[in-house]
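sry for the spam today, last one i promise. struct tokens for design, 275 residues
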């Protein structure tokens, strides 16, 4: 069994990126609405990554009750500024329309890859900015020389942030894809068919040893913080010996997500400069 080490891979990739961008003036603006505690932790990680790469970081922290009109104006100003990447930190309060806001971000600055133009490009297998976690998963498997074409990939979770984009990325890599969700019947019979299993549910230890086949590759996206401890969606200790490759939590897909965000800022720069 090989542990897919996201932390190490992130360090290697960011070192290479740092060299590529050393003469550029790149920047990231993160919009946070309200005081969600987990969001603040994620934003801090993004800030640190920017600082390490000399990417200018601005944290635009707004009141929970901000109106959509005000927010759209802020996004418009950012679109017209020289900031390289814009990111709307999720979740946002219910009175705001996530799609409207994501689509207001200039698609060339949309480093989260959630704008409808980038989503369409992904679906049509055209070049665009890709959602960071989905891209991080593919980058990790490729870095370990894991063949994707022809593999049966089972994805548990169908969110716009992870499950759906990663399913399209695997399709674009010529894998055979099955998507499961909370209404899927006989989940364990489907997961057992997976050559590669992606768990992205937010349910601690949903995936157990009985649910996977011998030698499967397991990617655990889940981050479940319970009483101060982080757990994945996979029952790692009991599953790992049955796998050929597995990601740990923490230290697997989390670092790859941050890494891809930084790579997306550079890609956004290239897009804006017609490269
Ligand atoms: P969502 O809550 O948006 O989606 C969860 C998905 O899992 C849904 O499609 C849901 O089905 C499905 N699901 C829930 N319970 C079950 C179940 N018992 N059986 C089968 N499917 C189930 O979550 P996200 O996609 O945003 O995130 C998933 C996890 O990944 C979370 O733990 C999140 O914290 C983590 N995450 C980690 C990142 C990282 O960098 N490592 C980045 C982003 C997220 P249905 O659609 O039917 O409701």
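last one done:
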């Amino acid at each position: 069994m090989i542990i897919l080490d996201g932390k190490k891979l992130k360090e290697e990739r960011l070192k290479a990126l740092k060299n590529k961008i050393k003469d550029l003036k790149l920047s990231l603006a993160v919009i946070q609405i309200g005081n969600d505690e987990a969001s603040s932790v994620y934003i801090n990680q993004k800030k640190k990554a920017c600082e390490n790469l000399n990417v200018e970081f601005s944290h635009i922290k707004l009141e929970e009750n901000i109106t959509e009109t005000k927010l759209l104006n802020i996004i418009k100003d950012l679109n017209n500024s020289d900031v390289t990447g814009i990111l709307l930190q999720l979740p946002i309060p219910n009175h705001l329309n996530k799609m409207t806001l994501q689509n207001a971000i200039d698609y060339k600055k949309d480093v989260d890859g959630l704008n409808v133009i980038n989503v369409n490009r992904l679906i049509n297998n055209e070049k665009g900015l890709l959602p960071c976690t989905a891209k991080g998963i593919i980058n990790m498997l490729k870095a370990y020389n894991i063949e994707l074409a022809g593999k049966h990939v089972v994805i548990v979770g169908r969110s716009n942030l992870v499950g759906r984009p990663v399913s399209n990325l695997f399709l674009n890599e010529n894998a055979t894809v099955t998507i499961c969700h909370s209404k899927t019947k006989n989940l364990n019979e489907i997961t057992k068919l997976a050559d590669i299993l992606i768990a992205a549910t937010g349910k601690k230890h949903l995936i157990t040893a009985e649910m996977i086949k011998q030698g499967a590759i397991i990617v655990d996206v889940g981050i479940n913080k319970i009483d101060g401890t982080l757990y994945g969606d996979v029952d790692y200790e009991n599953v790992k010996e049955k796998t050929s490759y597995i990601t740990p939590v923490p230290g697997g897909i989390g670092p790859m997500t941050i890494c891809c965000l930084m790579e997306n800022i550079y890609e956004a720069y290239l897009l804006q400069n017609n490269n």
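Residues 253-272 form the longest helix (20 residues). ok im logging off now
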